[in-house]
Write a structure and sequence with these properties.
44% of the residues lie in helices and 5% in strands. It is mainly alpha-helical. It has one domain: Winged helix-like DNA-binding domain superfamily/Winged helix DNA-binding domain (Arc Repressor Mutant, subunit A, Orthogonal Bundle). The longest helix is centred in the C-terminal third of the chain and has 17 residues. The protein is globular.
C-alpha cells in the first residue's frame, strides 16, 4: 500500500469525501484517476473532466506511485 502522506499533491481529511485521499484543494478522490486511466482516459482528458485538478498534480501522484512500486519488496 502506498504511503500518500509524503505526496504534496494529495490530502486526506476526516469527514471530507469519507476520509479518502483526494487531490489537494479538491474533493476529487485518487480512485477517480485510476478508474479513468483504467478505462482508457488520458491524463489530459482526466484534467479536463475534473476541474481543480491540474496535470502537475496527476504527474506527481503517478510518479509517487511509481516510486512506491519500485521500492516495494519482490514477492
Amino acid at each position: 500500500m502506498t504511503n500518500w502522506d509524503a505526496c504534496p499533491a494529495v490530502e486526506r481529511t476526516p469527514g471530507k469525501v469519507s476520509g479518502a485521499w483526494v487531490f489537494a484543494g479538491t474533493r476529487v478522490p485518487l480512485s477517480a484517476l485510476y478508474e479513468n486511466l483504467a478505462g482508457g482516459a488520458t491524463v489530459d482528458e482526466f484534467v479536463a473532466w475534473f476541474p481543480g485538478v491540474d496535470a502537475q498534480q496527476v504527474r506527481s501522484v503517478l510518479e509517487h506511485e511509481a516510486r512506491a512500486l519500485r521500492a516495494a519488496p519482490s514477492r
